[in-house]
UniProtKB/TrEMBL annotation:
Gene3D superfamilies attached to this UniProt entry: Medium-chain alcohol dehydrogenases, catalytic domain (3.90.180.10), NAD(P)-binding Rossmann-like Domain (3.40.50.720)
Domain of life: Bacteria
PROSITE patterns: QOR_ZETA_CRYSTAL (PS01162)
A GO molecular-function descriptor: zinc ion binding
Organism taxonomic ancestry: Bacteria, Bacillati, Actinomycetota, Actinomycetes, Propionibacteriales
Full protein name: NADPH:quinone oxidoreductase family protein
SMART domains linked: PKS_ER (SM00829)
Domain Enoyl reductase (ER) intervals: 11-330
Amino acid sequence: MKAWQVTRLGEPRDVLTLADLPDPSPGPAQVTVRVLAAAANFPDVLMCRGLYQVRPELPFTPGVELCGEVVEVGSDVTGIAVGDRVLGAPAGPGGAFAEMAVMDAATTFPAPDSLDDAQAASLFVGYQTSWFALHRRTQIAPGDVLLVHAAAGGVGSSAVQLGKAAGATVIGVVGGGVDGSGAKAEVARALGADVVVDRHAQDFVEVVKQVTGGRGADIVYDPVGGETYQRSTKCIAFEGRILVIGFAGGEIQSAPLNHALIKNYSIVGLHWGLYNQRDPALVRHCHDELTRLADTGAVSPIVSERIALDDVPAALQRLADGVTTGRVVMVA
């Protein structure tokens, strides 16, 4: 099979090599799939750079989520059959940007019939992250005001849709689009954001205060970090919650805890991957909830780019450079 491999650390366009590798075989509790679609995520970029919390040994294949067709099942696997259309995470070091991949049966889920392959490949990491953030690490409620940073990105886009599905008013902050045309703002509106803020042209702090009559946002969803986090503390509501999702902006901020004390807000971290180890049943429940929402049309990943296997390095570099909108997905 063909697979992209990171042979040294650096920018995706510089370190990815297309290799011919043996077809993988599943272990007793695994399945092998033919990759139908693989969604690009910022952790793929960070792993290429050697900056992610998970650091696979070189060489490795990036790609943390996929939709695939099962072609072989391990001897201990039950409930999954050859021919099933599934989604989930590949079992490293073999990632999703390949023609075939191995998946652990415990984190392999039926792909919703309501979603095509590219959309199904986008339903796992981002949507599970946002569901756990909004429904587990905090409890979003109808009428809440949810401020979502990077609202047109991989995880931010899922937070917008899940926030709307929960009955919240969603304020989405975007970067203004690839060429200043407002493409990212259009994606955020299509996702359902009630108010869209171009951070290059507007001050999101002032917009939040205007929308809420000075009260502030009940929940801030922050996958960016750095200055974005610091400024979010200026518009968080009394007893509000700031969800720390990641640091795509490149700076891991320090949180002045005296400010949280004075303003009575909570700083809540989320490492979604830990739930796969500590509470697999809850991860499966989350997938069932996301499938229900997808089947009712409440969530539907917006796939803006469908690329071929050969185009993976360039696409990951665009993601690294912050010039993508919606989801970028490799399709077979």
